[in-house]
Amino acid sequence: xxxxxxxxxxxxxxxxxxxxxxxxxxxxxxxxxxxxxxxxxxxxxxxxxxxxxxxxxxxxxxxxxxxxxxxxxxxxxxxxxxxxxxxxxxxxxxxxxxxxxxxxxxxxxxxxxxxxxxxxxxxxxxxxxxxxxxxxxx
Length: 138
Prior knowledge:
The chain is an alpha+beta fold. The protein is built from one helix and ten strands; from the N terminus they run αββββββββββ. A hairpin with a 5-residue loop joins strand 5 (82-87) and strand 6 (93-96).
């Protein structure tokens, strides 16, 4: 059997490996430096046109997530560390592990890790389907 008998297969494997390597920096570029978002689950609700989305957000010490909105409500549970939330129309709130926060739909807000360790939150969104989960405020 010739070494070239599996050439199409070898070329396909090499192309997949190359595409994976090239896609890795692009995927990493989508995450802001110092912030890691991990999608946990997404489900349709019994209310037409709405879905629940759950995300874990890890924010390194000193890092801020800029002002943004969501097309629905956000329910936050702080898992670790200390986060300061700036919610439109309210004074800044500093939350620690075990604290919770409710952010109404469309409300401009931002978060910053004001502690000295990586902070984590569990964010649950009740949002309109087929809309971006997050929109940065310009």
